[in-house]
Write a structure and sequence with these properties.
Layout: E1 2-5, H1 12-21, E2 26-31, E3 36-37, H2 43-46, E4 54-56, E5 62-64, H3 66-76, H4 89-114, H5 118-139, H6 152-161, H7 174-183, H8 187-196
Parallel strand pairs: 1-2
Antiparallel strand pairs: 1-4, 2-3, 4-5
Length: 198
């Protein structure tokens, strides 16, 4: 498999999961401005949407979208225990939080990254801080977001929460800060972050 990624974008989620998975894979960096890969390929030829993460499977099948790829990796790497098996409530708790990050928290950051308007950014911060308050409350006295162990939801949540360092928030989130520090002690997280820092 090959993961197409952009450093510290949401594709870091899949990079972390692949480091944990024990599966055979490679990675290729994508410049999202030029839509060229590090080996000179036109990224639109690989993924017509031009977005990361994109996972190319061994048979050439292209898989896109964060939530789908995360589940694919987890289901392929059952020994890594990145998600509970079908039928167990922990699986659906994990998918619930994975969906929250993908549909509520991640999109709340987009105006902050993409808009030049201070009023738009201020309005986005209000929305974002409501989402963060929900996460903060849930993480109080917890090491992981969905279950008692690291899951695909933690990989995605960690990546998105890491973006907070780029913005000045009006609220303090001690449980979130502790959570991020805890996730950063995991060797696979350190491995993926180190590679994307090069």
């Amino acid at each position: 498999m090959k993961l197409y990624y952009s450093p510290f974008a949401c594709s870091l989620t899949q990079h972390i999961l692949l480091c944990m998975s024990g599966l055979n894979y490679s990675v290729e960096k994508v410049d999202l401005k030029t839509k060229k890969t590090e080996h000179g390929a036109n990224f639109y030829d690989i993924n017509p949407e031009g977005q990361v993460p994109t996972l190319e499977l061994d048979d050439g099948t292209i898989l896109t979208e964060n939530i789908a790829i995360a589940q694919y990796i987890a289901d392929k790497a059952t020994d890594a225990k990145l998600i509970a098996s079908v039928g167990k409530i922990e699986r659906y708790q994990t998918l619930s939080w994975l969906s929250f990050v993908g549909t509520e928290l991640h999109p709340a950051f987009l105006p902050l990254f993409k808009s030049d308007s201070e009023s738009v950014k201020n309005a986005a911060l209000i929305v974002l801080e409501k989402k963060l308050a929900h996460v903060e409350q849930h993480l109080t006295h917890r090491q992981f977001i969905a279950t008692n162990s690291f899951t695909i939801a933690d990989a995605y949540l960690y990546v998105v929460l890491n973006w907070l360092k780029y913005f000045k928030l009006t609220q303090v989130y001690p449980a979130i800060e502790q959570y991020v520090k805890h996730i950063e002690t995991i060797p696979a997280v350190q491995q993926a972050v180190a590679l994307e820092s090069k």
